[in-house]
Design goal:
The chain is α/β, with parallel strands linked by helices. It folds into two domains: 70 residues, Ubiquitin-associated (UBA) domain (Helicase, Ruva Protein, domain 3, Orthogonal Bundle), CATH 1.10.8; 200 residues, Rossmann fold, CATH 3.40.50.150. 38% of the residues lie in helices and 18% in strands. The strands form two sheets. Strands 5-4-3-6-7-9-8 form a seven-stranded mixed sheet, sandwiched between helices. The mean pLDDT is 95. It binds S-adenosylmethionine. S-adenosylmethionine (SAM) binds next to helix 7 and strand 4. The site of S-adenosylmethionine (SAM) has 23 residues, from helix 7 and strand 4.
Length: 299
């Protein structure tokens, strides 16, 4: 659209918000602005300053397709194709779980444990992220602790393709990151990057939703089932990881695993019974039990 036909981005955003609202999207106005920023090249957060700028035909056509997808119930993050996580802007699509804010706090805890473990020691620590999905945890650690050697695994080749794209996106900060395909600890059979007893930190956000837990349609219909549900109980993968990590952690190494609030206390008990020197529940900023943290003394 040019000249007399030109419609402003402000008007286009109003129309998009009306469509989103009719489709039942909460925060329709805010989402419409984000989608307009995505297609128009307006700087994120810069919508107000550009509201009177004439829209272009190509960008409006692209916006129409994105609004259509959002009205069909697809999560905003997949429609946009990227989403912020800590310092990163990660590519996301239906091959990977959308990184969640609570997982940012799991990274925070893993970094704190890493710093505590190293003290002033400048050696290059080995950190493993099991079930990396988009690479959110592994790449955050790599970017925020440049000396760490980070090994990120996933059983899903599709997820690893997304992680690889995001790894390429972080440039030099990703030079210490290795991606490995395989189920939990079996993945280490194909890499020399990890040795038994050689891992300082194992961090993970595994599937932990029980099979009969109702999920909102936006999650159940669009996010990968294999990233969410490990089995009927919900703790199947967490238990396997607590067990398996013992063979890979160094003496003094730490496991930091995200879980549901209802699972945390039982998992701490399980870790203590499994021989960890110490184990505790980690809480998120809202004070909810969101992780199990367990210290391995060595054999
Ligand atoms: C909850 S998602 C977490 C993704 C990412 N770490 C995050 O926090 O956004 C769980 C991930 O574990 C992976 N996964 C599921 N079963 C696995 C297995 N047996 N071995 C390795 N990864 C597995 C899924 O493919 C998925 O990417």
């Amino acid at each position: 659209m040019t000249g007399e036909d030109a419609v402003s981005w402000g008007e286009i955003a109003r129309q998009a918000a009306q469509r989103l609202e009719r489709a039942g999207v909460d925060n329709a106005e805010r989402e419409a602005r984000w989608l307009v920023e995505e297609v128009s090249g307006i700087t994120p957060g810069g919508f107000d300053a550009e509201a009177d700028t004439p829209a272009t035909t190509t960008a409006v056509a692209r916006l129409d397709r994105l609004v259509e997808r959002r009205c069909g119930g697809e999560p905003l993050q997949y429609v946009l194709g990227h989403w912020p996580f800590r310092t990163l802007d990660l590519m996301v699509d239906s091959r990977v779980l959308i990184p969640r804010p609570e997982t940012e706090e799991v990274v925070e805890r893993a970094l704190a444990e890493l710093d505590a473990l190293l003290g002033g020691d400048r050696r290059s620590a080995v950190v493993v992220d099991l079930g990396t999905g988009s690479g959110a945890i592994a790449l955050s650690i790599a970017c925020e602790r440049l000396a760490a050697r980070v090994v990120a695994t996933d059983v899903s080749p599709d997820a690893l393709a997304v992680a690889a794209a995001n790894l390429a996106g972080v440039g030099m900060a990703g030079h210490g990151v290795t991606l490995v395909e395989g189920s939990w600890f079996e993945a280490f059979e194909s890499t020399a990057a990890v040795t038994p007893g050689g891992v300082d930190i194992i961090v993970t956000n595994p599937p932990y939703v029980s099979a009969d837990d109702p999920l909102p349609p936006e999650v159940a219909d669009h996010e990968p089932h294999g990233a969410l549900v490990p089995g009927p109980v919900g703790t199947e993968d967490l238990v396997a990881i607590i067990d398996g990590a013992r063979g890979w952690l160094a003496a003094g190494g730490v496991l930091v695993a995200e879980c549901a609030p209802t699972q945390a206390r039982d998992l701490v008990e399980y870790a203590l019974a499994a021989g960890y020197r110490r184990a505790e529940v980690g809480v998120d900023l809202a004070g909810r039990d969101r992780m199990v943290v367990a210290w391995w003394a060595g054999e």
